[in-house]
Specification:
The protein contains 26 helices and 21 strands. The protein has about 750 residues and is of the alpha+beta class. Pfam families: SH2, STAT_alpha, STAT_bind, STAT_int, STAT_linker.
Length: about 750
Amino acid sequence: MSQWSQVQQLEIKFLEQVDQFYDDNFPMEIRHLLAQWIESQDWEAAANNEAMAMILLQNLIIQVDEQLDRVSQEKNLLLIHNLKRIRKLLQGKYHGNPMHIAVIISNCLREERRILAAASMPVQGPLEKSLQNSVVSERQRNVEHKVSAIKNSAQMTDQDVKYLEDLQEEFDFRYKTIQSLEQNDKNSTHIKQEMLVLQAMLNTLDYKRKEVLGKIGRVIHEIDMLMSNMLTEELLDWKRRQQIACIGGPLHGGLDQLQNCFTLLAESLFQVRRQLEKLDELLTRLTYDGDPIPVQRPQLLEKVNFLLYNLFRNSFVVERQPCMPTHPQRPMVLKTLIQFTVKLRLLIKFPELNYQIRVKATIDKNVSTVSNRRFVLCGTHVKAMNMDESANGSLSVEFRHLQPKEMKTSAGSKGNEGPHMVTEELHSISFETQVCLYGLTINLETSSLPVVMISNVSQLPNAWASIIWYNLSTNDPQNLSFFNNPPAATLSQLLEVLSWQFSSYVGRGLNSEQLNMLAEKLTGQQVSYNDYQLSWAKFCKEHLPGKPFTFWVWLEAILDLIKKHILPLWIDGYIMGFVSKEKERILLKDKTPGTFLLRFSESNLGGITFTWVDQLENGDVTFHSVEPYNKGRLSALPFADILRDYKVIMADNVPENPLKYLYPDIPKDKAFGKHYSCQPNEVSKPSDGGVKGYVPSVFIPVSKILNDSTEPHSPSDLLPMSPSVYAVLREHLSPTAIETAVS
């Protein structure tokens, strides 16, 4: 079953999450129509290879054309229209930057896998629950409702100001008419009546001026209250969701809704500002004793300008945190002299600002808050914000060619680069710009979340651990001294984040049994998730008992092994992985002989082994575990083929494969058959293929178990043997002769 088919079977609450990340950047129609083709391409590799990305983009357009031909024959007008629009979008938007579409599709597939993993979990973790709080959703709806009401109030006040202007013009006309009369005429009864009318009009003007100022004051107060409370909370929540998404959590949405709210509030404030300017204009033409305009207008204008300054300052955000394109799932870890990307957005979307705001990027602007290591940014570090590069027309800027370069210290040498000292140093990338609009000049500043600078890719695992710990433990966006005294983390939240590492990086999260094993490995005991506090040192700095490595180094090596060598088997859920030797034997002891399970080695970095149960002649149960396979061996032979071809020689018996059933009772070939590189009966004969003059050969993994041993020796190096030769051996030679030939 394709990944997309699994997605379509999810509950509605998960489907709503899927709906959030499909837009015009990558329309869902294409995901649906080309599901199998899309899933069969390596988009992640293309995201870092422009030539490969261009080929995939061209093939994607060809696939769209084929679908267009098909629906044209079916005369499906709506689908024809949508596919033509999508084809035009793909060609126009990504032709100059094909890696961008590769990044988008890779992220969408990864997020689908994360959601599928979350849906398979019995319960949501505490962090994910907090992000999907119904109170938060209700507040979002309230903010949108209040912003809309404020916009309507400001527009209604416009009509009141227009009525006031018309009333004052009529008063001016009547007053000037009387002023133009001769002195004798002014004493007439008619003029005296007209003066009474003018006085009544002046009273009405005074009342309407006070009324308009009162309405303007209420609009300003409502905006102030909304900005100070709910809108600020919404923005902080979005930033927290972004933090969590950066360390593998659910993709964060809501920025477009925030942009809509910020833009409408800015429009309302500028509308109020124009109303106050109109009142000032009316004041210059008419004033009187007790006139409310000269008393109230300056205070209201000062408040409006103050709110505009704050609104603009809060609207300048880092939409996408710094990330190296070569490591899209490890944001905020930057390597010296390697390009990274970062995207900023102004949530106030005014067409007048298009290409008018130039943003400057700097690093470690406040040098007193960071380590002795100093960096500068090389590349294009000043760019203009525009509405053309974003699919939704947002006012944004993306820096794509920045490189951090370490400056030499005053002593002439680089700073200390110890393995933990470097990866626990936090740095900040700052951005500044200036907005000039309608007579206002506003200086804006914002910063990325703290980043870790590395000079060697070997520092990446520990650097990523620092990013995880920081963003799990605090929502402070700029605590650069965090690791001077890092706080402990709640075990339940840490385990949830560890599961995210697997769902986001290798497509399948961890179940409760696997998390239990990790919890015991971290703590050395069975503990309550909710109460236990784990230290940073225990997670990343202290070696595991009796091992020359830390917990995190061990786990990161497993992630790397899965990603590069056993990914399909992991995604299918056939690798139990995290299970202790003791638990392993409890699970297998009552199973049919030949039942086996796959687990990650606890003593070897990046190793996977299998253990099977057997029964001796006297009825006793025995267990056999093969020496772990590491990436070196798995580079020579796919793990599925090892499971298929693995042979054991015991005493004088014929070599045979002891692996029959994957725990609990799945026939081995049913579980792994689709992952075999070729079927046994498809193996060539000596006369087929191969280099001329040579017999084709295959690698067969073999172990030998002696009579006095319950454990196989280390699997011998994969022995090259022609499959046809092996078949002949089994058919014509005795078991002893076969053993001699294999050994």
